[in-house]
Design goal:
Elements lengths: L2 H13 L4 H11 E9 L2 E4 H15 L3 E12 L2 E10 L7 E9 L5 E10 L4
Parallel strand pairs: 1-6
Antiparallel strand pairs: 1-2, 3-4, 4-5, 5-6
Length: 122
């Protein structure tokens, strides 16, 4: 597994972590201390901010999990990949997007820049 695939696997482990203790650990495993997550709906940094964002998504979409769609493509400490938020119950995917990430020297995520390709109507 490449450094990019490893970083993205930890990213999905964080987004899919169940419970506050597991989430806190998964975020620390995935993001550097100064890590950030930015998309059209969010701009957070630090482990606490990222964990809070993820917990909020879990509340909004109970019974869903994030899944990688396609391959991880990376070079020079930067990677890109696409994902869907999938209902475990029926397989529907109300949200989909693509992310571009930069890695810190230790292989953890430094920044995640998210793009939302599909979102539910409000």
């Amino acid at each position: 597994m490449s450094q990019y695939e490893t970083a993205v696997a930890r990213y999905f482990a964080a987004w899919n972590a169940a419970g506050p203790v597991a989430l806190k650990q998964a975020v620390a495993d995935a993001w550097s201390e100064d890590g950030a997550y930015i998309d059209p709906l969010a701009d957070v940094s630090g482990h606490e901010g990222i964990a809070g964002l993820i917990a909020g998504v879990h509340e909004q979409f109970p019974g869903h999990e994030f899944r990688l769609t396609g391959d991880v493509d990376g070079h020079h400490g930067i990677a890109r990949f696409s994902w869907e938020l999938v209902s475990v119950a029926d397989g529907s995917a109300p949200v989909a997007g693509s992310d571009v990430v930069t890695l810190a020297e230790d292989g953890r995520l430094r920044t995640v820049l998210g793009f939302l390709d599909r979102v539910p109507a409000v």
